Amino acid sequence: MLNQKGIHAYLPLQKVTRRYTRKIKTLELPLINCYVFVKITSKEYVPVLETEHVLKFIRFSKNLISIPEVEIEMIKRVVGEGVEVEIDQNNKHREGDSVEVVRGNLTGLRGKLVSIQGKKQMVIELDNMGYSLRMEVEPSLLRKINTVTV
Fold first, then answer.
1. Is the whole model's pTM more than 0.70, yes or no?
2. Do residues 5 and 54 make contact, with C-beta atoms less than 8 angstroms apart?
């Protein structure tokens, strides 16, 4: 539907072989569920959002996220190789990472991710207080921050 509107859209698909009791099927499934990449200008924001089944743009804080062309090309190369790829969305944060809460009431809270206890509970050590704060945090609310050591 986006292409019919003249909007350059890319949906990375991968071929996946599923084995069932009585048959084997090869399917084409989206590499990343619920994501379609579009290359647009600001004039095309509204036509994209008016397209059926399009819910929203991905944002960080209040800013739209732009995926670098290099990363899109890398996805195209990986998909073109024909190997099965597994997206690991839930484990992008690792113990020891410096993290910042980017949405919700705790926005701006920074600390060190001490441990991950299940899918939604993480222990974060606050930087300057010397205490550990145990809280349930949705992983999508966290952003890894780079720390510079001198």
1. no
2. no
